[in-house]
Amino acid sequence: MRANILAPSILVLAAVLAGCGDREPRPRVVAPAPEVGARGNPSQDIDPLRRHVPITAEITPLPMAAVENFDRRRGRAYPMQPPTIPHSIDGYQVDLNSNRCMLCHARSNAAQFQAPEVSVTHYMDRNDQFLAEISPRRYFCVQCHVVQADAAPLVDNRFEDIDTLLRAERAARAERGRQ
C-alpha cells in the first residue's frame, strides 16, 4: 500500500529531473544590501549614543562622569518621582544584611545627620499597614533613587513638567484676553 502512495510522487520527481537535465541553472545575481546601522537605517553614523562612529567599528568609551555631591534637594519633574540622591554613594553597602542609607535617613537618625527622613510610605507593607522598620519592598534604595552625575545628556530632552505647561497656558490665555 505504501508503494502505491509513493509511486505518483516518484513519477513527478522523475519528470521534473528529466526536464532540467538539458540546461544548467542560471546563477542569480543579487546586489549587495546596504549596511544597516543600529536602528535599522541604511547609514553608518546614525546612532548618537555611539558618537557617530559606524556600528562596525569599536570605540573607546567616554570617561566616567563625576558624581555630583551638592547635598541639596532637586525639584521633581512629575508627581511621585523618587528624589535623586544628591551625594556619592560609592562604597555604601545595601544588601540583605545592611542598608547604609538608613544610617542617616532613618526616622531615628535623620535630625542628627541633618538628612531628609525616609518617606512614611517606605514603612508601609503592601496592605498599607505601618511597620517598625523599612518595608522589605522598599529596602533596596537604588531601585528607585539614583545618583546624579555631572555628564552631558546623551539624547535631547525637552520634557516640561505640568506646572511649567500650566503657567505657559495661563500666560497665553491672559495674552489672548488683552488683545
TrEMBL record:
<comment type="similarity">
    <text>Belongs to the NapB family.</text>
</comment>
<dbReference type="InterPro" id="IPR036280">
    <property type="entry name" value="Multihaem_cyt_sf"/>
</dbReference>
<keyword id="KW-0408">Iron</keyword>
<keyword id="KW-0349">Heme</keyword>
<dbReference type="Pfam" id="PF03892">
    <property type="entry name" value="NapB"/>
</dbReference>
<keyword id="KW-0574">Periplasm</keyword>
<comment type="function">
    <text>Electron transfer subunit of the periplasmic nitrate reductase complex NapAB. Receives electrons from the membrane-anchored tetraheme c-type NapC protein and transfers these to NapA subunit, thus allowing electron flow between membrane and periplasm. Essential for periplasmic nitrate reduction with nitrate as the terminal electron acceptor.</text>
</comment>
<keyword id="KW-0479">Metal-binding</keyword>
<dbReference type="InterPro" id="IPR005591">
    <property type="entry name" value="NapB"/>
</dbReference>
<dbReference type="GO" id="GO:0009061">
    <property type="term" value="P:anaerobic respiration"/>
</dbReference>
<dbReference type="GO" id="GO:0042597">
    <property type="term" value="C:periplasmic space"/>
</dbReference>
<keyword id="KW-0249">Electron transport</keyword>
<keyword id="KW-0813">Transport</keyword>
<keyword id="KW-0732">Signal</keyword>
<protein>
    <recommendedName>
        <fullName>Periplasmic nitrate reductase, electron transfer subunit</fullName>
    </recommendedName>
</protein>
<dbReference type="GO" id="GO:0046872">
    <property type="term" value="F:metal ion binding"/>
</dbReference>
